[in-house]
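Issue: copy button drops trailing tokens. Both records pasted manually instead:
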Amino acid sequence: MKPISPTDAWDLLTAASNPVPSDVVGAMSALGIEVLREVSGENSTEYLARCPAHLALTGKPDRRPSFSVNGATGLAHCFSCGYSGQFIDLVEDALGYDRVTACQWIVRRGVYRTSEETTPTLASADEKHAVTEASLALFVSPPREACDRRGITPEAARDLGVLWNEEKRRWILPIRDPFTGELWGWQEKGKRFFRNYPAGVHKGRTLFGDLNWSGHTALLLESPLDAARAHALGIPGAFASFGAHVSEAQMRLLKARCQQLVLGLDNDHAGRTSRDRLYARWRPRGLSMRFLDYGGTTAKDLGDMTDDAARSAFIGAYHPWRR
């Protein structure tokens, strides 16, 4: 990992936090959201209002408000259209700010508390402490024939930290903290074999790829091996979500790194469904998005394509409303 300057470190810490304004009603008003009703509970108050994202997500105004913001946690949710997020996400979406600016906007208004997302506990304390950089010494660089079968160059494997379990002939794909680069665990992948180590490692809070990268256009794929393939083809900003489900945290990481995102999830029902949901949810939040052009191919993913077809699919990425 490249050294992080004190300023960058502060920005990363700020961007990762979820501050809740001390005056939630006043902050909502400043965002143009009128509180229609307050519902007091045992530990907090819910503020009900018209959903600010309802029109963009459904094409219809919110005439039967089912949007609320929790005064203690800052969690916003619309039970009708599905829009949800922390209060900082609400500020980003309403004002078009990046995450650091949105955090500063809340802090200037006074902070009630910082609501951190709960990080799932790993399977056991022993496993948690066992995961260190030294753990990777058990593995080697992937052999040339394995790289060739996946269309991955040795240089791409090295750049992204891809390793190989020589004894079991399986890929080792590191899972790292997106801000510090600390090793959380890895995904082990072989023929008809798949395992995350340690059990319970929360890969949904990070991405696989060059975590130091930022630029204009990023590419989101499901498989880390496909991200390594894209990197080998010279496609910059290729990341993988470790599966068809892409979390809010992963999308925020992508939004902070690029101006435009090409959605290259698998060319199957699960991948297309996830792709369409991501577009509906994040395009209204100001993230320009295109779809990887699978065209008439029967390829399930970028890894099934020839080099030329994969590059063409990326270059030909299209806006969904043009198809």
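Record 2 (pasted manually too):
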Amino acid sequence: MDLRTPTMTSEAQPRAHGRAPIVMIDAEESRQEGPAETTSLLNARSGQQGEDETRRQNWGADDDFHGLPWWKTPTVYWLIGPYFLYTLAFGGMIVPKIELIVTLVCRHYFAEKQVLDPDQTFLPVIIGGNNLQCNSAPVQKNVAAFTLVLSALAGGLSAFTAPKLGSLSDRFGRKRLLVIASFGGIVNETITILAAKYPDVIDYRFLILGSFFDGITGSFTAVSVLGNSYVSDCTPPSKRAVSLGYLQACLFGGLAIGPILAGKLTVLTHSVLSPFYVSLGCHVTLICFIWFVVPESLSKKRRMAAQEKYQAEQEAMRVVLSRSVESQPRLPAWIANDTLRTWLLLLLNANPLAPLKMFVPGGRENQRLRRNLLLMGFIDTVLISATMGAGTVLILYAKFMFNWQTLESSRFVSIISFFRVIVLLVFFPIVNYIFRTRPLRYQQKLNGNLRTQESHSGADNLDVWLLRFALLFDTIGVLGYVFVRSEELFILSAICTSFGGLASATIQAMLTKQVLTEHVGSMLGAMGLLHAVSRVFAPVIFDGIYAGTIESFPQTFVVVLASLFGLSILASLFVRPYLVLSENGYAPIPEQDSRNQDRLTSIDATERSSETIPRV
């Protein structure tokens, strides 16, 4: 009896390349358009169909974690608590911070007016009080301009930083980069508390400094990218979408519960600063837990392999620059200087748009994958733009149509978030169990209950159809916003869009399945760049559309949103399963020699034997 660990593929043909064995594909597969979607969701294929197998790579992380004690084994459950705490602080600060900014800007506005007109008497502006004089148009205008500066600064800086942190995490691990990304929140909340506690000493414009530190450390975008990368490292492909859905559920749960808890805390303590102190404590707790308790998801072996691959890519770029200079004999001699080439290389790496190269891998063998990545990048950008840009405008639209007050608006947001959490925590795992877990267990039973090794074979048919399903329900719900004129049907349309929450988790999982392990952070970082850009421009676009059409046709922004979702559905029809990045997709990398392989093997063995005392 053959006692070797079976793989999820047939006709495996491993070859040494410094990583887990790679299953080669038949030459005929490169000319096919992919598996036909008339088959079952998982497109199960027998051993006799070996010539139609797609290119697969064993999911090697299972070997890295096998046999480790539980306190050293990374899993999504290590992140659920800290991530929920972070999103709770993030959601709880939305309303209190806006109210605090209104008060500080209003206080500064009337202080300036008092200086210009000493004979006129103005009511004092009390922090945490009911300052009716702050509802004037000039104050609201200044508040809008100031909040735009804060969001644009944080979003713009995070667009540059988040991809860099994602790429660095591939080489140096997720933990320390998560701590760095969370540290900006501590600085931001500290400056906010000081500005509110000592308004006569610290000008409200110091909040810009807080947004700077928040953005330069990646802000919420980087935390999301690194968290998703951590989960992708330690979760097999069959469960990855569900695990990422857990983090999405934490986000919606924090956005739903955070504002309610912040409001209750303010009432109980009679202090507007109480939520800010709690938020600061959440950030500190998050950092301490991640640093001292959460195990690293990337083994030393994988980090070293990623570092060596990165160095090889940089060396290849230097060679390309050298050859480009040598091919131009008329160029001045100083241009051929090695120092100048080094600076040119640094400038190329500093290009804020450079991370987007992850969506366009080179090589003819990656042509279909290139199309997949571009289509999924477009779809995910539409999803995040709808969340960041249209969410606030939708609440304003509901207030305009149904005369909602703060209570009704808060209840509406809580209902949407609650149903999204239910979909991600209940519906999604059930679907995954029926169409993925049960077939895998059945196959394991056929293999004599031996441990089944999953393969890295790209997104499957279930991923593709879940994406289309989620986008369809999102579109139906958004179209409901256009046509309904009653509160009940409006809320029902919002519940319909709750199934759209599957799209984000599914597409993040699909992206991580289609690239090699050492590129997961870079790919999600590139996606984070699009998220950060959407965070800046989407509110401006949708706010502008709503402001310009509210008197003639207030549903215009919803029509635009529905059109974008319609294009997303159309794009999803061209997304194909079972595509994986070719290893030379981004740069020509030299083969690793035997010394490197021996060193990586030694590192792996050392890592397994170290740290026998549990973490506290």
